[in-house]
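hey team, just a heads up i'm posting the complex here instead of the shared drive bc the drive is being weird again. everything in one block, sequence lines first with there labels, then the predicted structure for the whole assembly after. its two chains so it's a bit long, scroll down
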Amino acid sequence: MKKLLTGNEAIALGAIEAGVVYAGAYPGTPSTEILEILGTHKRAEIVAEWAPNEKVALESAIGASIAGGRALAAMKHVGVNVAADPLMSFAYSGANGGLVLISADDPGLHSSQNEQDNRQYAKFAKMPMLEPADSQEAKDMVRAALEISEQFQRPVMLRTTTRINHSKSIVEFGDITKHPKKPYEKAYRFDLVPAISKRLHYELEDWLVKLAEYSETTPLNYIQWNGKKIGIVAAGAAYQYAREVFGTKASYLKIGFSYPLPLKKIKAFAEQVDALYVIEELEPFMEEQIRAAGITCVGKDKIPNTDELSPTVVARALLGVEPDMVEVEAEAVGRPPTLCAGCPHRGFFYQLGKLKDVVIAGDIGCYGLGGAPPLNAKDLCICMGSGPSVAHGLQETFDFFGENKRVFGVIGDSTFFHTGMNSLLQIAYNKSPVVTCILDNRITAMTGHQENPGSGFTLQGDPVNIVEIGPVVRAFGIQHVRTVNPLNQAAMKETLAWALALNEPSVIITRWPCALKKYSEADKKEFGDHFHQCVVDAEACVGCRTCVRTGCPALRFDKTAKKTRIEPSQCVGCEICLQVCPKQAISAAGKGSK
Amino acid sequence: MSDVKNILLVGVGGQGTILVGKILSNGLLAAGFDVKMSEVHGMAQRGGSVSNQVRYGKEVFSPIIDKGQADILVAFETMEAVRWSPFLKKGGQMVVNDYRIPSAPILTGQADYPEGLLEALKAKADTTVIKAGDMAEALGNPKAMNIVLFGALVKKMQLSDIDWPSQIRDNVKPAFVDLNLKAFQAGQAAV
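-- predicted structure starts here --
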């Protein structure tokens, strides 16, 4: 059977076919779908779980590997930063059952805060790395990675990029093999105390020599001869772009096993061609090693190390060719992403944005859009879990210099469980008057509605105990905790004023489901199962535009008539526009159900 | 360079470009082509501009369509046709839905929806304009406008020989099969 699959679908299929028994992840674009798909399989086939964060996901996969099962952990590139601590050390221990770490990088920052090149992690941790260039390879390389992992006792990184994860190409299905469990044996190598780790570092260097030899002979690195003029070394999506641009006018050394590199093979290839091009996305990862081996090549002197590559970028850099484009004489107005109609974050940011002398440290999630016009509320965001802790540092420093500023740390429910709990503990322990706002929309929204420890369901949708944020926060010793419905503007405003009047750590939990969430029975009980759509009384509307300054995409301001209209196909009845209208021109008349 | 054809579907998150891309690529696969398809996920979906890119031929390498490469650009929203027009190949065709979705700066009154876009497109490219929204509404559900546009695309790309009705049946909920088959026919008849 063959089917069109995304890279992520192919990776999940590869894991099933190769007998992975434990898979863990924290959602993150472009890696999320791997676990979503594995979660559709029965527990007898595979144990697939959402973890609170990537470090925990990898650590559990490490446990599974040590126990003797085949294991997989999947995460986006910045997730590997979170998991770097166990990764760097487990690289010394090495795997028992095969362990594959999927690192899904995001060149071009389609949905990320940076575009770091995680191939560096393979070299940094001294672990083998594979890079697929399409979905078939993505599937096949999961099995290959697990086999290499077991043969060399190493964890293996399978490094993908957005264009591999989210592009579909043809995949031939294989057989599902039941892989026998390896015996668990108490071994010194899993107990990383200094004396053991010192010895393991020597052993790791020996393994690397063996892996370098393997890289020279594995069919994952192969040459396609077309001519001797230009030779191209490339891996992953960059290989596809190279093929697109150079076709049969160049020969290719296609790299699938990219750490350690097959440097002897590359040298021999280079010696047979007039010019060697190293075409790679982001950093000169291969190029630096190739140059260090004394091989002359063309690379980042011509190809940019910023943004993602494309055939156009490769052709421009290496051939000086520009695309021949149609030039239409008209301009499109920008279409930035916005908070959805009915988003509970809108009610929160609308009130928070009105406060003076405050600094708002945000976090990773849909509420990242709280800094965009017209809300213009959030000041900054660094990484997941950083909202409260960055806020703490800001507050301590403003206070040190006697600067009259209050700092808000804003974080979501899933991100609170991810690493935000540690962040808040910093505030509780070191007692800064930061106002921490936990925007609990009852789901991990941005990545497409994944369950989390606070949502009441597992990856498979099985009911599970709900971890309530309020009791967790109180257990940290924070005395001032309030839960508020962010859609209620008067209550939201009053709650913010309450927190600002305190000179101690405080927490505001805004609790209302994501507007796109499919309500559970518990949600229906707590939040109601129907809503009233809003309509504008055109007679009463004075065209002041106060309502459109909430940024709700269901509102349409007609410049000619100077009236607002509400698009019924979009309105989900959050009633924020109704509350902010100074002329009471909006009413909640229509009906809708969840 | 090669026999590879490039179909670029553009629109606004939620307009159903992904479903059309899925039906299209599965049909092309069944017809024996090598196919690659790319789509946008994550943050860009929150009301942003989205594209779905389908490439097919004997052997396809790059999963993405680059500037100046699309044989046909199907715009589910008028302003998106302009935004993505640099991706059209010189001599390529456009199918443009005469349907406006104002973006955030327009909704808040900071900008106006530009006028004269269809004329500007027609002046530089082989452009077919259809009112897919109205046509779908006449069939009973404006949401089926994506399949109206799909019908137009199939006709324009001379892909009518492929068994699209069975692909539609495989990819939409049973309750919507009849509606979508009608929408598909209407789209083909409109160009």
